[in-house]
Amino acid sequence: MTAPTIWAQEKLTLEKCYELAEKNYPLAKQNRLLQNQSELHSEILSKDRLPKVTLNAQATYQSEVTQVPFSMPNTTIDPLNKDQYRATIDVNQLIYNGGIIKAQTQLKESQIKAQQQLVEVNLYQLKSFINQYYFGLLLGQEKQELLHAKKKLLQEKSKEIQAALKFGAVLPSSEQVIEAEIIKINQQLNDVKYDLLKLWQHLEQLSGTKFNPNTILEIPKNFSSENKTIRPELELFELQNQQINASQKVITTTNLPKLNAFLQGGYGNPALNMLNNSFETFYMTGVRLNWTLFDWNKTKKEKEVLEISKQLIASEKETFEVNQNRQLQEADFEIEKIKEQLNSDSEIIQLREKIVRSAEAQMKNGVITSSDYLNDVTQLFESKITEKTHRIQLLLAKVNHQIIKGI
């Protein structure tokens, strides 16, 4: 099967990446397989309601046979043969079994639902990796833009310096300093390009989709503080409890009375008349009741085991909620920290821009060298990269907060 492709002109959203991973990641196939398994289990259990037909045959030889302990006048009773033969067809039809088939069906369904939810839990955990790659790509693209902007600025300054060289206004080394920095920027752009390709490949592996490296990534904007859904782990704990309840029902029905109708037809020597020493056909029909009146408290102990399992699930749920609250607190602190950093970033960039404008005028007037100017320009773009990094980190922190809380 060929993986779907997102073309360059298409826009890619974070939600689309989630959707693609939930659909195409190999683990997602298990949901369909588990559903097929559930349907087969239900079909198998329903067969227990149908009549069961069995063929039985035996040939035996015994050391002694039943004999009549007296004789009758004018009557000869032949002794039974020590070699005996019998073939029967038995038909058994369930009439009542205490609801065990229904209980077993519900148990299988609850088990499959819990397994499917476990798949959902594992798929949900992929979102954290998708966030890492998606926002890594956003940051890489922002760096690319800033590096291209810096390169364009330096190329323009290089042309100005070349013109000034003709009039001897600047030294040749001034142009060489700028050209060396442009080469360095090209190296940085090459590094970013390969970092982006690596991130695209990681995202492709999770989403099962081929992406064009020039695909436009949309910046997430909606961050709701109120979530209408819950973490899949919490739903899993609930389904595990339902599975235990279903197991308790199965245990309860195990010792209830079971009523079956049966029909047996056969051919043998002897048949039902043990005194007739010849091959004959025969049949027998009736009902059979089975009822376990005492099981040495086995059922009680099994229920106690299930109650302990419920307590274990409750403990796991409590542990999960404690860890979830701790992670939410850490995410809140991270968000506030980055917000404060962004406030400082804006001030720093404004100051750096003023410094660069002043340095540009000073370089034209020969007050400072091109190296001094280049140092100020580099610090300005490093401040801009830092500011972009903080903005992407803030978006990532907000998305991670939603992932932790449940989306």
From TrEMBL:
Top-rank taxon, per record: Bacteria
Nucleus as UniProt keyword: no
Swiss-Prot/TrEMBL keywords: Cell outer membrane, Membrane, Transmembrane, Transmembrane beta strand, Transport
Main location: membrane
InterPro entries with a match to the protein in the record: OMP_efflux, TolC-like
Subcellular location: Cell outer membrane
Keyword Transmembrane: yes
Family under the similarity heading: Belongs to the outer membrane factor (OMF) (TC 1.B.17) family.
UniProt protein name: Outer membrane efflux protein
Species of origin: Flavobacterium saliperosum S13
